[in-house]
Design goal:
Number of helices: 9
Shape: globular
Distance between the termini: 48 Å
CATH topology of the largest domain: Jelly Rolls
Structural class: mainly beta
Number of strands: 51
Helix content: 10-25%
Largest sheet: 7 strands, antiparallel
CATH architecture of the largest domain: Sandwich
Length: 764
């Protein structure tokens, strides 16, 4: 390893040694469990430890890495201490329930104290890393994962989410090509916390699947933050001992909900429920109540974030983006037709190996040859256009799904033909892995029936595939929902940047601003529902010269009358950073509004490309013009390429949006499906190559979009795509040679439906 990386590596010689290696099974060393006779395991541990330390004396080694904290681990520690092979980091796994973290860490610390007494280690503690935690019922669900985060943080140990499913998605956090689910945004909010933790007293200490949380106080920022969740119904949150010297007599509060969006479902991030000023009571408390007034009841699948700061004197507060919402379980829907099934129970607190499902049940029957209908009765508060999401799933490798990919169904309102929409339901890597298909429906005030059907109303179109449905959700967006607001004082501040609450003029919203001196930064994590244009406006209260960048590319330098820029955002998560210039800037907020027309986009279909070698046009019904390019790539040095000629009105940086699919999947091993990433080597005008990874999209007919920044000259440009199998780490051998017939590394580029080219940014 290069020296600069060596201190970042921790070696873990054995994984769950009581299993395959030193257990009783077929592949065990001698079919004797080390839990009953540890001699062979201890000898192997000592040998591995000394081998690693002999090669790298400063290497850190972790163990014993058992599947749970067995009582026998105390014997392992006793041996290792005497043999001089004590791990630098203590590891084990907790896969059952969150409270086990607290119990096991407390047990281990007692052992450690006893063993170290009278040695040169007395009074010290080894770092603990629970390097696998949580199961399928927990992962992706903010209301479940916050309970694990709470236990881990309270125990002051490190921990890593278990890898139960597909690789490359950060243990059920990242989805599609650049997006995060609810768990990703929970961890993003967790990473936003700073200062020091403060005590959290839950209503039911030590009880699993109840309200739990983690809280911090940052005295420099004058901010307190709380993340909590895990319960249903009313909730009573009290901040006690609020220091008036920091916050004053009133605090400004932001309350947000981080909803569950499915295991592979995209989330737009924490949703504002309210922004308001609250009085600090005479006893130093601030109270936030859920279910008793302005705030809704708590949902056990959601996590919640509360941020407190000094009240400030903003001109106004943000309006919540959603005015009303409802959720409707598929198992409660009326149904007709043959082939209907109610499936479950799915994952639960008593069966955590299964996947979390809203309500615990789902419904099947929307499949090829079916005539099933599901009728959901809804009652909405007013006339309007509502956002509708269908939480659904199909196994991408299932026989009925293989032909078309996404399963098509028909949505109707009150049985009317003029309301009928054809929806394509999402795919997943296993059954009961939820995503959502989104659309809009116009509804009048009152009750309606929303129907999902396997046949169109006129009978001319039918469902192809096989899907299960968990629930429908409806939401009525607020008037300001189109514009997202990111407050400067809540940004990720680095380099010495700090929030300020005493301002030269009133802030537009929020409680203060971020002060950025030269080189200091404020970073905002901005969501975009699609790869598309949006206008970014930076509201400042003083100072000029700050530099705005989006995903690492400079797009604007702030000056008087220059604070607005149209940018080609990537669908999903965008990193937007302001860097202070020569004159200290007071950043009030960043607003992001979808726009169109400033950045002229040109689209090129698959048939517009010049193809070479095995690259060819293949019919696919969900491609925009009915065909996509296949066969790009192959053996090293191949000539199987696709080249587009595109036009740029001026020289500069452009967003290349690639609509692609990637169906390549290796045979599953154990419980992990094995989809493969593909890569494309992209060159512009024959210049340097840029290698871009394209995640698996579950089917060749399931298309996603990914934005790649490219530099173009004025006029015509060529953009070429090629690929080949990449070598192993030695740079010369190939996996296909070492393991013939075993698909380990793709040699192909993704299927390309179309590309779109638009200027990356332009001032407004």
């Amino acid at each position: 390893l290069p020296k600069q990386y060596q201190d970042n590596i921790v070696f873990v010689p054995f994984n769950e040694p009581e299993g395959n290696m030193f257990g009783t099974g077929q592949w065990s060393y001698n079919k004797v469990s080390w839990l009953s006779d540890p001699d062979d395991y201890f000898a192997a541990w000592d040998s591995a430890y000394k081998l690693i330390k002999g090669k790298m004396p400063d290497a850190r080694i972790a163990g014993p890495n058992t599947s749970v904290l067995y009582d026998q681990v105390k014997g392992f520690l006793t041996h290792a201490l005497a043999a001089g092979t004590l791990p630098d980091v203590i590891t084990w796994h907790e896969l059952s329930h969150p409270e086990a973290v607290r119990e096991s860490v407390a047990k281990y610390r007692v052992w450690e104290k006893e063993l170290f007494k009278g040695t040169d280690r007395e009074g010290t503690q080894l770092p603990v890393n629970i390097n696998e935690y949580a199961f399928n019922y927990h992962t992706s669900v903010p209301g479940q994962m916050i309970q694990w985060v709470s236990a881990i943080e309270e125990s002051k140990v490190d921990a890593d989410i278990a890898y139960w499913n597909i690789d490359g998605n950060l243990s059920d956090s990242a989805v599609q090509s650049n997006r995060g689910n609810g768990q990703w945004w929970l961890l993003n909010s967790y990473a936003s916390m700073s200062g020091h933790t403060v005590a959290v007293t839950p209503p039911f200490p030590g009880e699993n699947y109840t309200m739990q949380g983690v809280a911090t106080l940052d005295q420099k920022k004058k901010q307190a933050r709380l993340l909590f969740g895990g319960s249903t119904g009313k909730g009573h949150i009290t901040f006690s001992g609020v220091p008036k010297k920091l916050f004053g007599d009133r605090v400004h509060a932001w309350v947000r909900e981080i909803e569950w969006s499915g295991q592979v479902g995209d989330s737009s991030g924490p949703k504002l429920l309210t922004e308001t000023n609250l009085k600090v009571a005479d006893d130093g408390t601030v109270t936030v109540d859920f279910g008793d007034g302005a705030l809704p009841k708590l949902k056990e699948s959601s996590a919640y974030e509360i941020v407190l700061s000094p009240a400030g004197k903003a001109a106004k507060t943000q309006t919540p983006p959603v005015r009303w919402q409802g959720s409707y379980e598929a198992e409660d829907a009326a149904h007709t037709g043959s082939g209907y099934s109610k499936n479950g129970p799915e994952g639960s607190t008593s069966d955590v190996s299964k996947f979390y499902t809203s309500g615990g049940y789902d419904v099947g029957g929307l499949r090829t040859g079916s005539d099933v209908t599901l009728d959901f009765t809804v009652d909405v508060p007013e006339d309007g256009t509502y956002d509708l999401s269908v939480f659904a799933n199909s196994l991408n490798t299932f026989d009925k799904v293989k032909e078309q990919g996404p399963t098509n169904v028909f949505l109707r309102v009150d049985g009317r033909a003029d309301t009928e929409q054809q929806l394509y339901l999402p795919l997943g890597y296993k059954w009961v892995v939820w995503d959502h298909t989104d659309t809009k429906v116009k509804l009048t005030k009152g009750k309606h029936t929303l129907t999902l059907a396997a046949k169109s109303l006129d009978g001319k179109r039918v469902t192809k595939g096989d899907a299960i449905v968990d629930r429908l959700t409806l939401a009525l967006p607020g008037a300001s929902a189109g514009t997202q607001v990111y407050e400067g004082e809540l940004a990720w501040l680095q380099g010495g940047a700090q929030p300020v609450y005493t301002l030269p003029e009133r802030a537009a919203t929020g409680s203060g601003a971020a002060r950025l001196a030269k080189g200091q930064t404020a970073t905002f994590w901005v969501f975009s529902p699609a790869d598309r244009e949006a206008t970014l406006d930076v509201d400042t209260l003083g100072g000029t010269g700050a530099r705005l960048s989006v995903n690492g590319h400079d797009v604007l330098r702030l000056a008087k009358g220059r604070s607005s820029v149209a940018v080609s955002l990537s669908g999903g998560v965008n990193k937007v950073t302001l860097t202070g210039g020569s004159s200290a800037a007071l950043v009030d907020r960043l607003t992001v509004t979808p726009t169109e027309g400033t950045l002229k986009a040109r689209t090129y279909e698959a048939q517009d490309a010049v193809l070479a070698g095995s690259a060819a046009l293949t019919p696919l019904p969900l491609a925009t013009d009915g065909t996509a390019i296949t066969g790009i790539g192959g053996d090293p040095g191949n000539g199987n390429t696709a080249t587009f000629t595109v036009t740029a009105d001026r020289a500069g940086l452009y967003a290349l949006r690639v609509r692609y699919s990637n169906p390549e999947q290796s045979e599953a091993t154990h419980y992990n499906p094995d989809p493969l990433a593909r890569h494309a080597d992209i060159t512009v005008n024959g210049g340097g190559m840029r290698r871009v990874g394209f995640p698996h999209s579950f089917h060749e007919n399931n298309f996603w979009e990914l934005t790649v920044p490219v530099t173009l000259k004025k006029g015509q440009n060529t953009i070429a795509f090629r690929s080949e199998e990449l070598p192993n780490f030695d740079g010369t051998t190939y996996a296909s040679e070492t393991f013939p017939g075993v698909l380990l590394r793709s040699r192909y580029a993704p299927l390309i439906d179309r590309i779109t080219v638009a200027p990356y940014a332009r001032e407004k």
